[in-house]
Amino acid sequence: MISLAREGGYWLAVIDRPEKANSLTPEMLERLCEIAEAAREAKVLVITGTGRVFSAGADLDAARAGLATSPLWERLSGALAAVPGLSICALNGTVAGGAMGMALACDLRIAVPGAKVFYPVMALGFLPQPSDPARLASLVGPARTKMILMAGQKVPVEEARDWGLIDRIVVPEDLLVTARALAEDTLAADPSHAAAIKALIG
């Protein structure tokens, strides 16, 4: 349910459980962690999903069994943030809950029209993963972070782009084409050059 295609330094990870809104089981989350950790060898890592939802976060049954508060979420976002190359979250649809951590930890976020972003931790009684609020606030500011985390707002990607949370909106058929185009300069560069530029940005 998690596939990985490698084409030289270009890695494409796909969440493929569309019948369950790409909700993540412990095994899927572990696999994503392994891919993100191994992506230190990649020049570019793109994460996307199949169907109309990028990911609804934790699988409901798994969440009730403890996945909602698993350290795997923080392990995943930490590994993504540590990728020395360019990481792109290509949102093929709505992103919700713990899956927001993946999007926040990537360098770039592109999305299809009509998708939404939301993180219903207030309603569900969970805390967000430790690094997510700071990453979100660095992109959209503290007030809009509270709009998402405390007011529980489902933010359309068109508005999220205005906030700085989404970098570009493209039609579904161009989503991965756009991701690949954004990757070209990094793919053509020496990995150490890309890593040095990324380190300067912080």
Structure, explained:
The chain has 202 residues and is α/β, with parallel strands linked by helices. The chain has a single domain, classed as 2-enoyl-CoA Hydratase, Chain A, domain 1. 43% of the residues lie in helices and 20% in strands. It is built from ten helices and ten strands. It has helices at residues 26-38, 60-64, 72-81, 100-105, 121-124, 132-140, 142-149, 157-163, 175-188, 191-201, and strands at residues 2-7, 10-15, 44-49, 53-55, 86-91, 94-96, 108-111, 116-118, 155-156, 168-169. The protein has a six-stranded mixed beta sheet, with helices on both faces. The chain has a four-stranded mixed beta sheet with strand order 4-6-8-9. Helix 1 packs parallel to helix 3 (72-81). The longest helix has 14 residues, at 175-188.
